[in-house]
Amino acid sequence: MNRLHHPAGPLGSLVKCFWYWEGAPQTHTKERLMPNGEPAIIFNLRNDPIRIYDSGDTDRYSTFGHAVLSGAHTRSFVIDTAQQDRVVGIQFHPGGSFPFFRMPASEFENTSLPLAGLWPSTANDLREQLLAAPNLDVIFALMERCLLEQLLRPPELHPAVHYARALFCREPHATTVSRVMDKTGLSQRRFIEIFRNQIGITPKAFCRVRRFQRVLETVHRVRQIDWTEVALNCGYYDQPHFIHDFQAFSGFTPTAYHARATEHLNHVPIA
DNA sequence: TTAAGAGACATGCTAATCAG
DNA sequence: CTGATTAGCATGTCTCTTAA
User: Fold this and answer.
1) Total structural domains in chain A?
2) A175 closest-nt by C1' vs CA
3) pTM higher than 0.70 for the full model?
4) Is the pLDDT of residue A56 over 70?
5) Same structural domain for residues A126 and A165?
6) Which among A56, A68, A130, A145 counts the fewest CB atoms within 10 Å?
7) Closest residue to C15 by CA to C1' distance?
8) Which Gene3D superfamilies match (predicted)?
9) pLDDT, tens digit (0-9, with 9 covering 90-100), for A61-82
């Protein structure tokens, strides 16, 4: 069973969705997650702690308790799916986790941290309540209320960051950092600092991740793919550059990714 | 024969650093 | 917080190898 919930009100601009997953254990035991520059919070409602594997060496892993904050990523990472058959999560918009934590979002770049360390008095309580919840509506309501209570800052991004994010998401291939920067009226120095502070990764890195995501969307559910055409349409200079970027982000060559891809374009089963 | 994938290298840009 | 500086990274261009 799989369900999404989209929040209204002030959370709407920060949270992309709340999601719930429950199902039989997967036949594969690991999944490689593609980077998309969006932070997330995940609760495992089973007893096993959450495991995240070293991106390069998938025999090494760290455990994170039952709830984890995953920061904005520019690299893929590997999770354990064997024990994750009942999981709820909060998928943020880029920069959406910023108002809920004391630290700048850049502290979470390419990392995951146990939520208990960040919300000491809240994380475990919330999980207990989620476990006791009678149905999904209550689960989503609990998470929504908890988030509202955890707001440490105004629930919006700096106007320059908001503007830049929108442009980078809409046309990652057709814009440059400096062009966007000029429009904001901030100095180069200041713009990069604020952007990284709130979104969690540098503007250029964000732009490249969004371009990569556009490729995944383009080839999603397409059988016969002309990779050169995809590369050019998505704004890559040529096929070699496209392949290089694709591997750096995903850990797969384009064809290897496509061979393994499922309906969840950011989750690729391995092993 | 064709397309995927890898790599070398020059040039310009970005991001981090440092001084004030 | 800002401006100047600069190392390192991304891009543009070309060439080469491998697999189908």
Assistant:
1) 2
2) B13
3) yes
4) no
5) no
6) A56
7) A240
8) Homeodomain-like (1.10.10.60)
9) 889 999 999 999 888 888 888 7
